[in-house]
Design goal:
The protein has 675 residues and is α/β, with parallel strands linked by helices. 45% of the residues lie in helices and 9% in strands. Strand 6 (219-224), helix 8 (239-242) and strand 7 form a beta-alpha-beta unit. Helix 1 (62-76) packs across helix 2 (91-103), helix 4 (136-147) packs parallel to helix 6 and helix 22 crosses helix 23 (567-589).
Length: 675
């Protein structure tokens, strides 16, 4: 066996091995826990840099070292399909190995890219032209500055220059770097560390100069859940450009501790799910089936057919939903300027909604009595966004006599939830995992709106199933869809929304629903037509603050979908949408009796949340029980304002002027006085 190949376990000859390329230091120390948590029959090999076996062999290009390692791999496994992976600074090598095998006509069944955000290339670009770039000391300072930056922004260079030689500098680096200790065994000598650094520098230079090409094979990116300054989440986004069918998996821990127990068990489980165990001709490889899906295709036929295949159903119900779907797809493809990851996210969103439609339609056909379920006097919270409506929704959800929409049931409404099994419903975990991935790419949005699968959530998740929802316009810039939506009769959309509430109420009912969506305001005429006995709460806040705050939220959402994020455009789109919502809502309110609606100013809610809830209960005649009072006190204590962080915003950042905003909301301000 070639010396650069480390055999962790020979395993069964009937199982294809996994070959893992070393990280940037060239050794295989990080992989030592993996064999103990994979199946005992699974063959496992790792590739180590030849310098670690005292071969005086150097490389200058990723393509060169990848070809060298492939020669070693073929001596263990002459033909494909191959399972290949790489970690951190070794990911490019494994990626290039897969490229070369594909060009040579070999099959790569599975490629694992383990926590290598793209791109140290980008971070290093300013250094390329420096004469000292790629020297041991320059690389040491670069990583010291990046991983443990000084508060004043200065470099660590002066600290390292006080030492007389590289050995002393290296000792200081090892002692003070918080991540370096996991790169070698605890008994490593200084000579080991010098060898480590020699390989480290060589691979850094090669990684910086490597240019990945498009790859279409089954590829899974394994991301550490805990990020730091060196690995901000969106640095992974460009991988979707080079791997259109990329599958994204999250592993607990950070870049280093993901290999520690118990995190490595999770990594092992997520890896072996995709291992290729047999050639495709035997049709036994689940992973190979996944790879056939083009995860950036946003054509109508592809989306419909994929949803039908996934659900095993073909009846979407009323075909009217196709009108909104076609308009959304057309506007997205023409205007949104999505990057590859954005296309993948939008594709997943649309397919999930279509699968939900198929499953709900099947429920309606199997159980026609669902549509006879009464929805009596639901309570809707609406108004401008960023007015405390989420906080108010959570407060009102403390009433045990109310029924509120959980995120998990809004995300996947079918089958009808049963209160007897709700605590163990598998949708709860699946939904939370989906939103963990969302928050990885939108970490700052958590301070603005925290998603919890078991918490109250907005109705927009149900309204999206008809593909006529303003919520799509916040994820991406699709102005033609936004304008088209203004002209549509939303009554059929709310009829279908009612059907979904009936499905959710069929087995699990209560005195009344407590539902929330700020953008019910713009569709209030349709909402009242479908729910004539409904009660309404309208939350209020100064439009200046609302517009700036919501613009900031959109600014944080959109980079996950597009690189073309323009703050000025966001400001204009936000102002247009919010002012239109208020105009339509004010018109519709004239047909609603005072007894049906209760107005809640933001400042009152913040200053006196309990008093605000009591005001609402008095207005609508709800029973304010002692259980409700106790629940409220507990919730308020456990959920202080800014619990998930605070963020700043201003109109000027979004090209907006206070006088212009106030003019657009002039009638609203006249009607509501001091907010």
């Amino acid at each position: 066996m070639p010396a650069c190949l480390v055999k962790f376990r020979e395993g069964s000859h009937h199982i294809l091995p996994i070959f893992l390329v070393h990280p940037i230091a060239g050794n295989t120390h990080n992989y030592v826990n993996l064999p103990n948590v994979l199946d005992p029959e699974q063959p496992i090999y790792a590739l180590q840099h030849p310098k670690w076996i005292n071969e005086n062999r150097s490389f200058t290009r990723i393509e060169e070292i990848a070809a060298y390692y492939l020669e070693a791999v073929r001596q263990v496994q002459p033909r494909g399909p191959y399972n290949i992976g790489g970690y951190s600074g070794g990911v490019y090598i494994s990626y290039e190995m897969a490229q070369q095998l594909t060009v040579q006509g070999e099959e790569v069944g599975f490629l694992a890219l383990i926590d290598k955000p793209h791109w140290e290339t980008e971070a290093d670009k300013p250094n390329w032209n420096k004469s000292e770039f790629g020297t041991p000391l320059e690389t040491m300072i670069y990583f010291a500055d990046l991983r443990t930056p000084k508060r004043n922004g200065e470099s660590h260079l002066s600290e390292y220059q006080q030492f007389n030689n590289f050995d002393e500098q290296l000792r200081y680096f090892i002692k003070n770097s918080p991540w370096i200790g996991d790169m070698l065994p605890t008994d490593a000598t200084l000579d080991d560390w010098k060898k480590f650094w020699d390989v480290f520098v060589e691979l850094r230079v090669m990684n910086v100069s490597y240019s990945p090409k498009i790859y279409h094979g089954l590829t899974v990116y394994y991301a550490a859940a805990e990020r730091d300054i060196y690995y901000p989440r969106l640095n992974e986004k460009p991988w979707f450009k080079f791997v259109p069918n990329l599958i994204f998996e999250e592993v607990p821990g950070d870049h280093v501790t993901m290999w520690h127990h118990p995190n490595v068990q999770v990594l092992a489980q997520k890896m072996k799910h995709y291992f290729c165990q047999a050639p495709k001709t035997q049709s036994t490889n689940e992973g190979a089936q996944v790879a056939t899906i083009n995860q950036t295709d946003l054509s109508k036929d592809f989306l419909l057919e994929t949803a039908q295949q996934k659900a095993g159903l073909d009846d979407f119900g009323n075909q009217r939903f196709l009108i909104g779907l076609e308009q959304l797809i057309e506007s997205t493809n023409k205007e949104a300027q999505l990057h590859a990851m954005g296309k993948n996210l939008v594709q997943q969103l649309i397919i999930r909604l279509l699968v939900n439609r198929l499953q709900m339609q099947n429920d309606f056909k199997q159980h026609p009595d669902i549509l006879q379920t009464p929805i009596k006097q639901p309570l809707f919270i609406m108004g401008l966004p960023r007015t405390g409506s989420t906080h108010l929704h959570n407060l009102l959800a403390q009433d045990p006599n109310s029924r509120w929409l959980h995120l998990w049931e809004a995300f996947t409404p079918s089958p009808s939830p049963d209160p007897k099994t709700v605590a163990t419903d598998s949708r709860i975990k699946k939904t939370q995992e989906s939103f963990k991935a969302y928050e990885m790419f939108n970490p700052e949005s958590t301070a603005m709106h925290k998603y919890n699968a078991n918490a109250p959530e907005e109705c927009l998740w149900l309204l999206q199933h008809d593909f006529m929802s303003i919520s799509f316009s916040f994820l991406m810039s699709i102005p033609s869809y936004t304008e088209w939506l203004k002209t549509q009769d939303m009554t059929p959309v709310y009829d279908y929304y009612r059907h979904q509430l009936q499905l959710l109420s069929w087995k699990w009912s209560a005195d009344h629903w407590v539902l929330k969506n700020p953008f019910h305001m713009g569709d209030l005429s349709a909402l009242t037509a479908v729910f004539p006995d409904a009660h309404f709460i309208q939350t209020h806040r100064e439009p200046l603050k609302v517009t700036a705050s919501y613009s900031r939220l959109i600014e944080k959402l959109r980079p996950a979908y597009s690189d073309k994020v323009d703050s000025q455009i966001i400001g204009k789109e936000t102002l247009d949408i919010l002012s239109h919502q208020i105009e339509q809502g004010m018109k519709a309110r004239t047909a609603i009796s005072d007894g049906q609606i209760c107005d809640i100013p933001f400042d009152n809610l913040v200053k006196d949340p309990v008093g605000t809830v009591q005001q609402i209960y008095d207005h609508f005649g709800y029973e304010y029980s002692q259980v409700m009072a106790n629940n409220l006190d507990k919730y308020i204590t456990n959920n202080p304002r800014y619990k998930h962080g605070k963020y700043s915003y201003s109109l000027e950042e979004f090209g907006l002027d206070a006088s212009v905003v106030n003019e657009r909301f002039n009638e609203y301000l006249k009607n509501n006085g001091a907010l």
